[in-house]
Amino acid sequence: MGQNKSITIPTELLPNDGRFGSGPSLVREEAVQALADIALKYLGTSHRQSTVREMVKRLQKGLMELFHLPEGWEILLGNGGATLFWDAATFGLIESQSQHLVFGEFSSKFAQATMSAPHLSTPEIIKSEYGSAPVLEPSNVDLYALTQNETSTGVALQLKRPKEVRANQAIVAVDATSAAGGMLWDPKEVDCYYFSPQKSFASDGGLWIAACSPAAIDRIEKIAASDRWVPAGLDLKIALDNSRKNQTYNTPSLSTIFLAVHQIEWINGQGGLEWSTGRSKESSTYLYNWAEKHQYVHPFVSNIDLQSPVVVTLDIDERIPADDLVSACKENGILDIGGYRKLGRNQIRVATFPAIEPSDIRALTKSIDYLLELLL
Fold first, then answer.
1. Average pLDDT estimate for 249-275
2. Which of 24, 36, 277, 279 is the most exposed place for a label (fewest CB within 10 A)?
């Protein structure tokens, strides 16, 4: 708002809950209350005690059910988020060389980590312009690094393992941080599906979780048996051994684990992954349809096959500074819809994770319509 004038959105247009962040996401009030109810008996407990190990077991069991994982798959946990897992993977998943599809800020980070690792060969990096997606190229690498949903751009990929990948026994690792719980995937196409739980799983940070196939487990154990030096905090074999005991190597954030469990069990109770992905799809489809018909708003990702169902990026007419729109929204309790700044576009970014009510997405569009007319 160039004039620094406050705008009040009529109450009847506002969403009931104005949290639409694509970073740390909306945490449901029911989950916060449930944590408060057990806090005195749960928080402050050693991660090796049965109270915490039972919670970790519930998380692992819930994810096995949610993802329909076949026999032989295991759920690993470790301290830190996906950023820490990228470093761990350079030590414990890649034997020699990896291939990376890069189409945004976050998909580039794993590639950068492997580029810097002195014990690995230079990775193959396939890039595309922001708002589009590259295509995996069969190669002699031993790991293919994919990103199911690029949080910075709102581009989503369909996970598919080429026949050539099966032939050379390379494994497929997928960063699913903003996708897991909000997008479908087929375990036959993936070997390591890893994520942080602060998106669709409506939790806090400080934890990485990885669903690993037998092939991924074999790779972890093969590298661990070699003479490669691995820092203990990034050792996937240590994470594997501890996860089999329903614990982590060091004390994790107990609130993060509990909130993730609460969300996973809520989703499973509502109908599982089919339900949660349908809910996200309902919200994102409404946003895309609204933007397609709008005079001042347009989807950033033009290819509908690549449009994310969990993170919607929308370009705003250049006559209306997106920062002014975001500021006006914030004044009215609509939070965290700013675009990813490194893209350098006049846009907003709206999460449509399962915890966000579709009715609030509809209210958001009404609120934005109201502001756009005043800001123009």
1. 97
2. 36
